[in-house]
Design goal:
There is one protein chain. The chain is of the alpha+beta class and 129 residues long. It has a single domain, classed as 2-Layer Sandwich (Tetrahydropterin Synthase, Chain A). The protein is built from two helices and five strands; from the N terminus they run E-E-H-E-H-E-E. The protein has a five-stranded mixed beta sheet with strand order 3-1-2-4-5. Strand 4 and strand 5 form a beta hairpin. Helix 1 packs across helix 2. 29% of the residues are buried.
Amino acid sequence: MYELKITNHFSAAHNLREFYGKCENLHGHNWFVEARVRADETDATGLVMDFGVIKRLLNGVLDLVDHKYLNELEPFTTVNPTSENIARFIFDRLAPGIRESSGGRARLYSVSAWESDNASATYVDLTAA
């Protein structure tokens, strides 16, 4: 089993509905995002995937949320924009591109969304384990 890891970041504002604490107020984070891709085998050149392709795909997803007020974006108009839901949002949009760009060989395993240096949430696809 091979695992590749790509990281990037984005900045956005949000507030948590029905939270009843400081995070219920409008505030922002500089999120750090980590995406992990797994594959059982490499291609003929010895690669699971080109890192540049994964970076391009992740950048495309992060462009959807960068410098935005997340509560105004679907699905966050009805789903709370928690770090957990942000990780899932990124995962759901990144996974198809990983699968397609690798010819089905690689799959997105997890996405972590760090809202601070010491707090993150991770969405994991256990079928990709």
